[in-house]
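Hallway conversation turned thread

IA: we were arguing at lunch whether anyone had actually written out Cytochrome P450 end to end. Turns out nobody had. So, for the record, here is the sequence (445 residues) and right after it the structure tokens. Reply here if something looks off.
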Amino acid sequence: MYLKFGSRPVIVVSSPSAVEECLSSKNDIIFANRPRFLIGKLLGHDYTTMVWADYGPNWKNLRRISAVELLSPSRLQMLSAMRFDEVKSIIKRLSDQGCKHQNVELSSKFFALTYNVIMRMMAGKRYYGEQVGDSEEVKRFQELVRETLRLSDSSNVGDFLPIWRWIGGDKGFQNEMLGLKAKRDKFLEDLLEEHRRLRSDLKFDREEKQTPLIQVLLSLQEAEPEHYTDDVVKGIMWDLFAAGTDTSKSTMEWAMSLLLNNPHVLKKAQEEIDLHVEPGRLLDESDVEKLPYVHSIVMETLRMYPPGPLMIPHEASEECIVGGYNVPRGTMLLVNLWEIENDPNLWNEPTKFVPERFLGLEGTRVGFKLMPFGVGRRKCPGEGLATRVITLTLAALIHCFDWERVGEQMVDMSQQKLGATMHKALPLEAKCRPRKNALNFIDKL
């Protein structure tokens, strides 16, 4: 579909073939750029972060650092014990509430878990749990994420009508972003300064896989200061923090909501876990590989409620042809991921929660029908981390607890307005109680 948003030409693609043509074949490099939105200039450090940088040497270097230094499979594997610690922590807290027959609010607990995982990876410390109180730093971060998502979902008229910016029509929006940028920079600078002080007292090995990622970035900065300015380092840090917390938290909340509304799926998943995990211990990441049905639950959740229902916009760096039509240079590309992943012509009964449709499939991609982490050169580099955290957490919750809804009514599946991310309109509450065959090992966690 070809549209005009003000002075900006836009194409919206809503079919697998169109996505493939734009992002994975002859036009993949052409559409690897980002539109020059004001948010990319102000919050993206003048278009230098991995999210907002145009395709080129700077972006390639940032992508390489993320894939090789920060989120490589070997580093993620080395950090599996840390993720397991955080899952054990949420199990213990839920067990305490479940044994007291209390309703449990899961949204905040999922945020706590994902925040601790990414903070321990980045900075080597945690903030939520039995031994640490609800830190003010965590509340600061949660508010920063919330405000970033709000502004990301807001349409800035000046991005589509330049005259609006010239006459100062977007001054209020700009001031909001500048205020948010100052708070985000302060949060990140505090972490950087803390690690610079640690660096003067301790020796860190950049090649050591359990070295905090901030220390890896500081090592790169010392080696190549012209390439790794403070703004570049802060941009990498924020991309990892934001991508590693909010989307994983939302996916787990949607998944548990679906399981509560479909108890037969929950029971089938419990039976699979009981079959493959020996009694007397909590499952771990090595067990998850043997649980195809649990993996299918995650994939079906990502299909029905993709973390980014509209992919971050792309922009054509030169004139090209899509679907037999000429697309001018500078055209913005929007991929309607939600439409593709819920299209009845592509999926049998797409509104139904049917994990079985993914049994026997590997990974989180099904051609160009299922692309929850994007596709092509700008695909999310955090897919490996997100899938590990989401799948392990859900498997552990299914393994340890029997779950039921609060009251007789189905869980409300209403979502907030469609935007950069897809969140439940109402935080999820549920009832849980430890399963009989899990009581012994939960007490030992």
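OS: looked through it. The chain has one domain: 2-443.
IA: good, adding that to the notes. Residues 186 and 228 are 18 Å apart (CA to CA).
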